[in-house]
Design brief:
By secondary structure, the chain is of the alpha/beta class. 36% of the residues lie in helices and 19% in strands. The protein contains 5 helices and 6 strands, in the order βββαβαβαβαα. It has a 6-stranded mixed beta sheet with strand order 1-2-4-3-5-6, with helices on both faces. Helix 2 packs across helix 3 and helix 4 runs antiparallel to helix 5. It is globular, with a radius of gyration of 15 Å. The relative contact order is 0.16.
């Protein structure tokens, strides 16, 4: 994907990065320690499993927004994603690929708004966190609150 044009912007309240042309394929990334439009390296890593589709599809990666409120529900997050996708103006519902926590968001979106999702694919995702996943996310959150982004990324990679 070196040399590929990446468009960045906002749809609704969500920052995104996109490449390719054609019907939309929305990639919902996990909750990374970086908010906002994703960096080139992060974008490449997230779209790696589906990058060949950029020849015939518009790959759109949503990332979390700054100031994600504490206590926000998965349903509220999924609602924001559905609203953002509605701004695409496409004549058909998008396909979704959910990665990690993005898969949980995608599942909630598809359950709450089934008419707005054409197809759903999940990568390294589940419908809920077990005890080990909760412990890792709590550790990552604590490290991020302390300003230790590198340690948070290391904790995620270790998990």
């Amino acid at each position: 994907m070196v040399g590929v044009r990446v468009e960045r912007g906002r749809l609704g309240s969500l920052p995104f990065a996109a490449t390719g042309a054609g019907p939309p394929l929305i990639v919902l990334a996990g909750l990374s320690p970086v908010a906002g439009a994703v960096s080139d390296g992060y974008f490449r890593s997230i779209v790696a499993p589906v990058r060949g589709l950029a020849r015939t599809r518009r790959l759109i990666v949503f990332n979390r927004w700054s100031g994600l409120p504490q206590g926000i529900s998965m349903g509220e997050i999924a609602q924001r994603h559905a609203e953002a996708a509605a701004e695409l103006g496409s004549d058909r519902a998008p396909d979704l690929v959910g990665v990690s926590t993005g898969g949980s968001i995608a599942q909630q979106w598809a359950a709450d708004h089934p008419a707005t999702v054409r197809r759903l694919a999940l990568i390294s995702s589940a419908c809920r966190l077990g005890p080990a996943g909760r412990a890792v996310q709590a550790r990552v959150a604590a490290l991020l609150r302390a300003g230790s982004t590198r340690a948070a990324v290391a904790a995620m990679a270790d998990a």
